[in-house]
Amino acid sequence: MTSVKVISTSTIHVAKKDSTVEEEIQLTPWDLQFLLFDPIQKGLLFRNNPITTPPIIIQHLKYSLSSTLSFFPLLAGRLSVTEHDDNTSSVSVICNNSGALFVHAVADKYSVNDIVSSVYTPRFVHSLFPLNRVRNHEGITKPLLAVQVTELNDGFFVGCAMNHVVGDGSSFWHFMNSWAEISRGSEELSKPPVLERWFLDSSASAIRVPLTKEKMIQSGYDGFVPEPQCERVFHFSKDKIAELKAKANAEIEGESKNKISSLQALLTHLWRSVVGSQGLEPEEEVNYSLTMGGRGRMKSPAVAENYFGNAVQVGIVRMKVKELLEGGLGKGALEMNKIVGLHTEEKMKSYYRGWAENPRLLTMRGLGGNNTLVTSSSPRFDVYGNDFGWGKPVAVRSGAGNKIHGTITVYAGAEDGVDFEVCLSYETLEAMGNDPGFMDAFSAAY
What one-character DSSP code corresponds to residue 194? Predict the structure, then answer.
């Protein structure tokens, strides 16, 4: 049991609805693949501001959220399902202004330091988010966007959940940045979203998925509940990351020399420590699942930086334990670099086209495993620029959604560098904390 008490719930509607016509937005393969996933859950932690009070903050956030939804009307809508005779369904978003959920809660037994100063993320943090244990396909009846503002004894937490079918991490932070911009007093957005979905051809606008509406409604959490894991945030400074990048590139010869990026070197550094801490056999295969963004790869102007939707697919790096641990930092980083390089525009189009012909829904059950790491999010997302009018956040945390053993969430650091939010067993995280080779690059975040 946690000491998080819900004070009120309300529905936030679009402030300016210019038409009574309910616009329908068809969904792409990039969107539909996430029907059985959880919503994206990310939250920002703030210290109290002496010039404002919680009631003012709550009212101000409700008002600014309503104004922001005018630019993102699909987030106030619901999923719509059209069933077909072959036990398949077409899924779209109806912009019907059913509204977003807003929850006001209090957890005054907890402080900001309880979150940022703990070695392991406290369990109560998951209670600071709405839409727990909800799957994306339940957006037929449940909100596509939900916000929970929780008062702490010396600060507050803004937890947001967005249906993953509607958008990816880039879209999530695009919305959050826009909300903060409106909250600070702007009437227009510096980066308006492009809501129109991108399709390879017009025939792809009514893709069928192998689920009926009844199965979507009744399947609930589909019986799969991930085993509880521990979470820890590791911070790596800009200087330490530069050292790792230089080390990885120094270990590589030939044409591939100096091609390793900072993030590839850092992810490989983490991967080697996790695998080394698990005591796996040398010939066992280990996998690293990378989320590839389409916005920087697709040449179509429709899939630009402000494209609001999903534009991601997964690439998997596969190595033997012996190769990864004995090959040095450069060996693993080079394999990662190769997989990233393979995901060209044509590769992404091929996946898109193949998915439309043979839909394959991603599942939590098949997401990872003891020998797999899965990375999401990006240090490029503007997390700490989310000033709602009373200062920047001091930390970011994610909810329980899509969390299984081996999930790694990447954020920009509060001041510099990169943060990894790592979800693993307690034993593995303890072993990593006692690994001098790994911790040498670690810096205290706060």
Answer: B
54 to 119, 155, 314, 410: CA distances (angstroms): 28, 9, 41, 30
What distance lies between CA 431 and its chain's CA centroid? 26
**How much is the pTM?**
0.94
Nearest to 137 by CA among 221, 223, 36, 26: 36
The pLDDT averaged over each successive group of 10 residues in the chain (446 residues) is 88 80 89 94 95 90 98 97 89 96 97 96 96 94 98 97 98 98 97 93 69 64 66 96 96 82 97 95 96 89 92 94 96 96 92 89 72 94 96 96 93 95 95 91 64
CA dist list (Å): 236 to 182, 269, 328, 377, 441: 32, 11, 19, 16, 6
Q: Find, among 397, 391, 254, 223, the residue nearest to 334 by Cα.
A: 254
Angstrom distance (rounded) from CA 369 to CA 353: 28
**How far, in Å, CA of 411 to CA of 409, rounded?**
7
Instruction: Give phi and psi for 312, each to the nearest 5.
Output: -140, 155
Alpha-carbon span 28 to 37, nearest angstrom? 16
Query: In the annotation, is 13 catalytic?
Result: no
- Which residue among the candidates 104, 126, 137, 164 is catalytic per the annotation? 164
Helix (H) and strand (E) counts for the chain?
12, 16
Could you say which of 13, 114, 222, 387 is catalytic? Answer: 387
Known catalytic membership, residue 137: no
Instruction: Name the burial class of residue 290, with classes exposed (0-12), middle (13-18) and buried (19+) by CB atoms within 10 angstroms of its CB.
Output: buried
